[in-house]
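Hi team,

As requested, here is the filled-out complex form for the pyridoxal-5'-phosphate run. I kept the field names the same as last time so the parser does not choke. Let me know if anything looks off before we queue the next batch.

— J.
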Amino acid sequence: MSRVYNFSAGPAVLPEVVLKEAAAEMLDYRGTGMSVMEMSHRSKAYQAIIDQAEEDLRKLMGIPENYKVLFLQGGASQQFAMVPMNLMKNRVADYVITGQWAKKAWQEAQLYGQANAVASSADKTFSYIPDCSDLPISDNADYVYICENNTIYGTKFWTLPNTKGKPLVSDVSSCFLSEPVDVSRYGMLYGGVQKNIGPAGVVIAIIREDLITEDVLPGTPTMLRYKIHADNGSMYNTPPAYGIYICGKVFQWLLNQGGLEVMKEYNVRKAAVLYDFLDSSTLFHGTVVKKDRSLMNVPFVTGSAELDARFVKEAEAAGFVNLKGHRTVGGMRASIYNAMPIEGVQKLVAFMERFEKENR
Ligand SMILES: *Cc1c(COP(=O)(O)O)cnc(C)c1O
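And here is what came back:
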């Protein structure tokens, strides 16, 4: 068996101990004589798995009592519609456009009401986060929406917008559990888990209870109502049971690491290995305004598309895979989520140093 250093933006690297544990439990989950994949979601054994997962997530993030945790399906993209269907009571919402995912969410919301773009960084290819301290928030806005970590462009909101009292809705797909968060500052946060937590197919939404109501837009399908999932403990229908089980193992792994303070400290140290190199390199450079840099997704370029392509190819041959930038931006991108060990980044930088010497 040989494992590579996987810099994929998602689905992405998971902790090796989690994969090993899942492998060991594959045929017989703790004496049940079956795999979690084969188990009724109405069984006692499965109820214990999902309850433990929720409890551990609440502990990790310090989720207040008045927030619900929902395990949903449909990817983060499904939330682009579910958010307005459930929250757009006045049919007005304000969006901050910091990349493709925010833009898609904004476009989807336009199907349901007036979705205003109140700030954007499109003018500079989304290489920065706009100043959101005094946005023209609509008086009757139902919420203000951001994509907190921009997976494709490698920017991160290090200061949350001033929403002027409106609930903040945040897509945290690619920074989920990478650092401590103050959940009480959000009306809702959600993320697809395939970036930093588990296998594709699960979305976790954390929503303040007063925002979960029967009062949804007319025609909202039952399956797309937060209230249905909240009232049924995320088991209105068959949940993505195996995926939730793996998420639960990752929550336990994070608790064993010491929690999110420790993860953040590790992630800062890990990202600095790559950013410090990029800042001193004569060949490679980062593409993002320094103060807005993501700890999770690090885009960089050489300035030559041909050299970029050669780098990606040679890196892959050396065991550093999925470094090609998003198809819409080119260049390279190293996604260095929680489960990427610092050694992976140190070795990548050593490889980049060699490549630089050979190609100067
Ligand atoms: C990957 C990603 C999405 C889309 O996720 P799907 O699960 O494929 O729908 C949305 N937002 C962000 C920030 C992402 O990184």
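Two things worth flagging: The chain has a mean pLDDT of 97. The first helix runs from residue 16 to 24.

Thanks,
J.
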